[in-house]
Fold:
Amino acid sequence: MGLLVVGSIAFDSVKTPFGHAEDVLGGSATYFSTAASYFTDVSLVAVVGEDFPEQHLQFLRSRNIDLTGLERAPGKTFRWKGEYTYELNEAHTLDTQLNVFQTFRPRLAEKQKKSQVVFLANIDPDLQREVLSQVEKPALVACDTMNFWIGGKRDALVRTLGLVDILIINDGEARELAGEPNLVRAASKIRSFGPRTLIIKRGEYGALLFGKDSVFSAPAYPLESVFDPTGAGDSFAGGFMGYLANTMNFEDANIRRAIIFGSVMASFNVEDFSLNRLRTLEYREIENRYREFRRLTHFDDL
Amino acid sequence: MGLLVVGSIAFDSVKTPFGHAEDVLGGSATYFSTAASYFTDVSLVAVVGEDFPEQHLQFLRSRNIDLTGLERAPGKTFRWKGEYTYELNEAHTLDTQLNVFQTFRPRLAEKQKKSQVVFLANIDPDLQREVLSQVEKPALVACDTMNFWIGGKRDALVRTLGLVDILIINDGEARELAGEPNLVRAASKIRSFGPRTLIIKRGEYGALLFGKDSVFSAPAYPLESVFDPTGAGDSFAGGFMGYLANTMNFEDANIRRAIIFGSVMASFNVEDFSLNRLRTLEYREIENRYREFRRLTHFDDL
Structure:
């Protein structure tokens, strides 16, 4: 049954203070499913254009990702162009070409409708609901979103939030969605929209979890070299949801572990452009870094 | 012999999005020694003017702080005026009047020269060394500094750093001091100047410790209401050094605990203007919040 993700597959052009990459493999569903594939079976719902090369499909298949739901449409693949300054937490979008994504109407295969765990990556909230309505009886649903939808399709987004268990967004988005600068108050307000669990990503500062009776603060892994933050949030979500789909335990202690696995995947992903670091990553390295997160945060009881 | 601190005592005028306070008790030595007084005996070296009221001295004495080294000089007490926007991490200084601080030449009492643990709060690095040279055989020396000295008296500051065990500064200052945007690399460079331990404060994002073989990430406590960040860094240092002076154990595990106690003190301090929250704080509350830091950061081993 595994984990279902709907999101984008893209060609990214990225410039950072440490280099640049042109038309490399990117997109929320790509990062998410690759990161999640270390933990569980992933099935992907997305669209690419006629220009999308076979080698990228082969890579996704090599990660055991089910591409039944990948549509190839006439036209060009979604393209994103962005830049980062030394403030690596914030991407500056230079160009977005929706291309085949503009008319994408996802239809789930029969097998996908039985999915138990669903991740709605950052796409139009109406599309997120369209996908979710096709899943028969999901046990856990999480979603991401961004400023573009918070400002432009707020009502549709709030309807989506009423249907999800977990929302994963960054701190600026949380403040904007709640209309409240204090994150603790913003979290209460956002949870009142529906998600019983809110995860706020803070880039190089880690992530905060707000649950019913639980607040958890996870650090980011202090890296000597962050080459390209693109896909960090989606790799985080992939590690997080992949671990939850694998264990099917949604209690607080396991959600905390999942957040650390998410943080581990994000920390590897930013070490190189595109998905390059994840192409060579081994599970043994993931476990080792999880242990390093323990050493990074441990202090003794009173 | 307890903990010796040299620093400022001030009248602060502060504006935040949540209110304002005029000519209230402030200064690095004031916040530091009050926070530290919950853990150990503190002896203070500072100067005030003729306008400094008896009630403030009474408060410090009520915290059992030794005021032998407090000089009362002709003229006015140091004054600072600042403002915070919703970006509570950064103070905007509107006015600084050094007043009696301008000609301050600290002379330690005989008893103070025997101090084992010394904190050199954020003052002129030449003054920091002048104080330190009077301490006979300190077991642990820590200091703070700021952009003003990093830019204006770099050579003097580097000489001071060669004499201290622990440096406590914020992230912007660390980047400026090292000339390096990445904090991990900046930490290595700063540690090569002398301090074997570097603590980088990141305001609402907590603190990072860089030691010989150890990196530790401590969160900040997620608060619903941050009223006034003034003195957060000095309260942090006070809790941190106070705990170390009390235990006289400078091993990694104990330094981590001390960082949490520092974070606890900072989290209380920002809940009200000036030192108001610390005026009513009880040790039992400190221990409870330490336990909350445990719950906030705990996740299970693999």
Summary: The mean pLDDT of chain A is 96. Residues 252-269 of chain A form the longest helix (18 residues). The radius of gyration of chain A is 18 Å. DSSP finds twelve helices and 13 strands in chain A.
